[in-house]
Each structure stands twice: as C-alpha cells, then as structure tokens.
Design goal:
Layout lengths: L2 E4 L7 H10 L4 E5 H5 L5 H10 L3 E8 L10 H18 L3 E5 L10 H17 L3 E5 L10 H11 L4 E6 H5 L16 E6 L9 H8 L10 H10 L6 E3 L11 H20 L9 E8 L7 H4 L3 E5 L5 E6 L2 E6 L6 E8 L3 H10 L17 E4 L5 E5 L8 E2 L10 E10 L5 H11 L3 E10 L2 E9 L6 E9 L7 E7 L2 H11 L9 H10 L5 H5 L2 E4 L5 E6 L6 E9 L10 H14 L16
Helix pairs in contact: 1-10, 3-4, 4-5, 5-6, 9-10, 10-13
The structure holds 3,4-dihydroxybenzoic acid (DHB) and magnesium ion.
Magnesium ion binds next to loops.
Length: about 600
C-alpha cells in the first residue's frame, strides 16, 4: 500500500523533513500546518520541492474547531476554511483533515454538527478539496470514531469522509471491529501510531508518547486488517507526536518509520518473521589484553584460534565467547544467533531495511551474514559452519564447567534510539517485548526493555539513559549456570577482586523480604523471587572497559532479570569506577571478527 508520514513525526525544518522522508522511500506526506507556517518557501515552491523528491502531498492538516461551533462563529470559521482551501490549491493538496471540535464553547447535537460538516464539504468541493473528519480522543462532543462516522453519514456529501487514527481509536479502548461497518470509500485516510501503555490523560499521551507501529502495545495489525476488510485502499500514514523523535536524526527516524510499516504489512499478511533465532551462537568481545583474564577466571577454556584474525574462541558448556584482540578497550561488539535459516533471516533483515554488513572473507571461511543493531553491535545469523573457521587448540568436545550457556546480552542504546531498538529486535529478529521498566541510577535514570524469543532461548535487554549520562557506558553478557553459589565460592577464593562488591544494606533488606541462604551475603550473590515462586540468583563481575559479566541461575521458571536489584548494581558499578578507571565510550575502530 502507499506509504506516507506526517511531517510532525520527524525533526527539522520542513525542507529537511521532506528530504529525510523521501530518502526513506515514502510515497507521500501529510503536511502539518505548523511546519508550513514556519517555512520561508511559498506553497508553490513547497509543492515543487516535494514533487522533485518524488513525494505527493497526501493531506494537509489540521483544521480545527469547526463542527458544532456556536452560530456566531460560523462565518469566521467558513472564512478560515476558504483561506485553507486556497492554500491547498497552491500546495497541490486535495485532502484536508478536520479534527473534532475541542472547544468548550462547542454545542452538543448531531444535527447541528452534521449540518456544519455538510456546509464545509460543499465549500471544499468547490475547490476540488475533500475533507477527512477525525474524532480526537479528547474531542468535546465527538471523541469516538463511530460517532464521527455517524455524523459523516448524516452530512451525506461525497466530499466528506472519515479519517481513522489508530491512536484515537485504541487509546480509548474502543473496539476496532466497528471500522468494518464503514464503507471503504468513506474512509478517506488512515493514520497509524502506536503507544506504550501509560496511565495518563489521552491528550498528553498522544502529544508526547506516540511511537511507530511495533514500538508500543497497540494491536495495529488487527486494526489494519479490519480497515482493509472494509475496503480501504488509501495510504498507510504514520502520524507520531513524540518528544524524542523531535530531537533525533530525521533520516534515522524516517527510515525507522518505513521499517515499521513494512513490518506491519508483513504481520497483517502473516509473513511476519521466517526464521526466529533459536539460541546464542556466541558473544564477541573486543578484548585487548584478553579481557583482563576474565574468561579463564570464569572457567572458560580456549578451544580455538582464528587462522587469519586475532580472534580466540573460548568455550564452557554451551557458552562461546570470541575474544578479539583488536580495539583499544574491552567491549561487546558482536552477537551470533543460531538461526534455523540464516539465509532467510538475512534476506528478511534486508527487506526490513537492515542491510547486510560488508565482510571480508576468504573462500575457506563459512559464509556468515551480519546486520548492525541500532547501537552498532553486529548481529550474525549462524548455523554451525562458523566453528570450523577456528583452528582447534584442543580435541573437540564440550568443555565442562558450571556455566551452561549464554542467558542474555544487555546492550546500551544511543539516547534517541530506544524505540528504534525495540522495533529492530521485534521486526528484524522476531523477538517479543517482555519487560519494560525504569531503574534509578545514582546519576540519572535508566530505561530498560527485555526482548525474548520463544522459550527464552534468546534474550536481549536494551538499556538507555533516560535522564543523566548521554550514553550509558556498560554492556554485559549474562551467562547461565546451574549453581551460582558454587561459582561464587570458587571466584571468591581464587579471584576475590573479580566480583562486584554488594553493600550490606542490600542483604539487610533482602533478609527482611525473604528467608535466604545467609551465605549469599558473603559471596555477593543477589536474589529475586517472582509471584509464582520462581527464583533468580545472580552475581556480577567488575567491569573491564565497557563490559562486565553476570552469572545467572533461573529456578522454577523464573523469566525476569532481577530488575529490582539493578539499582544496587548500578550504584556499586559507579562506586567502583570512581575508585578506578572511568568507563569510556565504545572504542573507535573495533571491527568484529568477520569470522
Ligand atoms: O493533537 C492534535 O491536536 C492532533 C492533531 C491532528 C491529528 O491528526 C491528531 O491525531 C491529533
Ligand atoms: Mg490524527
């Protein structure tokens, strides 16, 4: 379907917005009035600029506070409308969006409102303009889409139809099934926005927190399927008011919007994701100086070396780490995911605008494709072939140990790209959002979202500094094990400096909440319990460069991440860093081993 986006959804001047929108491949735009008013170009030139960029002007908006206005305001309102119709002729736009009246002065009564709508449609038709009437969720008398449709039917004019906006429909909890009762040709326009579930009034929720489809919690695929069944064949148009998008790169936001529409169309078509990853193949760390000896200290064995690159393979149980000696500072630089169909997964990623990264490869090396996650981490789609690229330094066989695999990786996002990350992991990798929360940090606030694949085989936590530091420094690899206490005992004895010290106050509070093994206190093991009795024991290493390790033990089906302990962990990490090295940004020039 034709794809459009409202100019309000991206940052910049009107011309910058149009350029970014065109570059992302959109067919059209909704011109938002504020963007036009602030633009130094006359409407004819805006029209020409859009045409040069290959963009149609699908809609001009918003026109406000018209239907049901007190009688004495009608002449002035019609005068306003005439001006806008003439503007639209200059702009080459033939569809005007009318928002339902929000004025406290608006009078109730469907007959009056429908009469006004008819009048507006008659005047519009004289200019070759059509009017799409939208029920704002906070409209004074009209705030339900089916009410807007009743008025359109009453007004009964060919130049009048409805504009459906997913936010106004779904934020109020209206049943979207009603869209199927509206004849497709009377749905003049469809605006799409998602939103996180927030307990707040609909107006600030709409004006500050909308996001692209797939970034929030609304069932947009269900709504779109219904609108299509109704026979709607017009554009899918993103209309997102979002405080972060207003600051972010317009190019990146527009591209992300396009990705969201492609993913939505695939979801409606039932081709959402062909090859959801089934596990972690490896985590690759830039490890100059061997990561401070942490892999060996944690019980990993070096099992192979790459013949052509300074990369070592370290294994324990089902966990594999690649330690890449390039780079200035330790960091997590790539993640390998087991894929049932690596080629299909790579093709899917490309369709979702995540290009396969260029990679130097000798003919003997396994063919392996990677895409860049929003934070720059390279995500590889793997089958078992890549292991053969390493020259074994041991006889083959599983390296026994207490660690059994990789439980999750936690990545930190650039400040403006948290929603982009959620959409990337959901649409490109097929992971589902699981847990979203805010964690206090001594110097700010961290926002965190866990995404996971079927059965929790792949778990990715994305973090972003909500307030405070511009770019959160730390990433981590969480290793699964069957007995965290045994690991902790051994580390305490053999590498006492490796474990992150946890304050006694934490254990006093833990004792107040749960009866736990008193040994946890001395070992620095943290604890959580869920409402089903599932338990979580975990511990942290100190940080090297940007990265640290967590060891986790899940008991009784626990699905979380010990979120309640994250604030204590962050404070302990900051304390450690004030005594030692401060964390730096991701080292420049580190290229993941293109296996
Ligand atoms: O917040 C608003 O005023 C507003 C304006 C135009 C729209 O299409 C909309 O959905 C909301
Ligand atoms: Mg709207």
């Amino acid at each position: 379907m034709r794809k459009s986006i409202a100019t309000v959804s991206v940052s910049g001047t009107l011309v910058e917005k149009l350029e970014a929108i065109a570059a992302a491949g959109f067919d059209g735009v909704e011109i938002f009035e504020n963007d036009l008013l602030a633009c130094p170009l006359p409407p004819e030139e805006i029209r020409a600029r859009a045409a040069d960029l290959g963009l149609g002007i699908d809609l001009y908006q918003p026109f406000r506070d018209f239907e049901g206005a007190p009688a004495e305001l009608l002449p002035g309102n019609l005068r306003r409308a005439e001006h806008k119709f003439r503007l639209m002729e200059r702009l080459g736009a033939d569809l005007l969006l009318l928002c339902s009246n929000v004025s406290p002065a608006a009078v109730p009564g469907d007959d009056v409102a429908a009469g006004h709508l008819r009048l507006l449609a008659e005047r519009a038709a004289e200019h070759g303009v059509r009017v799409a009437y939208e029920a704002l969720a906070w409209g004074r008398h009209v705030n339900e889409y089916l009410h807007a449709w009743r008025l359109v039917r009453l007004a009964d004019h060919p130049a009048l139809g409805v504009c459906l906006d997913s936010f106004h429909i779904l934020s109020r909890g209206s049943d979207p099934i009603g869209v199927e009762a509206i004849p497709g040709e009377k749905i003049f326009f469809l605006q799409l926005a998602d939103a996180p579930r927030l307990a707040m009034d609909v107006l600030p929720w709409s004006r500050h927190y909308r996001c692209f489809p797939g970034q929030g919690t609304f069932d947009l695929a269900g709504l779109l399927a219904g609108v299509r069944r109704a026979g709607y064949a017009g554009p899918l148009s993103l209309e997102v008011f979002n405080d972060v998008f207003r600051q972010a790169s317009a190019e990146r936001t527009a591209l992300d919007g396009m990705r969201s529409l492609i993913a939505l169309e695939r979801e409606v078509a039932g081709t959402a994701h062909p090859a959801v990853p089934t596990g972690f193949a490896f985590a690759e760390l830039a490890g100059p100086g061997g990561l401070g000896g942490i892999p060996a200290a944690l019980g990993f064995t070096r099992t192979g070396t790459h013949p052509g690159k300074p990369v070592e393979l370290w294994e324990q149980g089902g966990a594999r780490l690649l330690v890449n000696a390039t780079g200035a500072d330790p960091a997590l630089i790539a993640v390998g995911l087991d894929s049932p169909d690596p080629a299909g997964a790579a093709g899917h990623a490309e369709e979702l605008l995540s290009p396969i990264l260029p990679r130097a490869r000798t003919p003997e090396e396994a063919e392996l494709n990677a895409v860049a996650a929003p934070d720059g981490t390279e995500i590889f789609f793997c089958d078992d072939g890549w292991l053969a690229d390493f020259t074994p330094s041991r006889p083959p066989g599983t390296q026994p140990g207490l660690i059994t695999g990789i439980d999750h990786v936690a990545l930190t996002q650039p400040r403006h790209h948290f929603d982009e990350a959620a959409l990337f992991y959901r649409s490109v990798l097929g992971l589902r959002p699981q847990e979203s929360l805010e964690v206090p940090d001594p110097y700010g606030l961290l926002r965190s979202k866990a995404m996971s694949g079927p059965g929790g085989a792949v778990r990715v936590v994305v973090n972003v500094a909500q307030v405070g530091a511009d770019h959160l420094p730390w990433q981590h690899v969480a290793l699964a094990c069957d007995d965290v206490v045994a690991v902790a005992r051994r580390l305490r004895k053999e590498h006492p400096g490796l474990l992150l010290p946890i304050p006694g106050n934490y254990y006093d509070d833990l004792d107040a909440r749960h009866e736990v093994d008193p040994e946890l206190r001395g070992l620095g093991v943290l604890y959580d319990r869920d409402e089903h009795g599932g338990e979580f024991l975990h511990l942290y290493t100190v940080t090297v460069g940007r990265v640290f390790f967590e060891l986790v033990q899940r008991i009784g089906g626990y699905q979380g991440y010990g979120a309640g302990n994250a604030a204590v962990r962050l404070a302990a990490q900051h304390a450690g860093h004030r005594q030692g090295v401060r964390p730096g940004p991701r080292p420049a020039g580190v290229t993941p081993a293109p296996l």
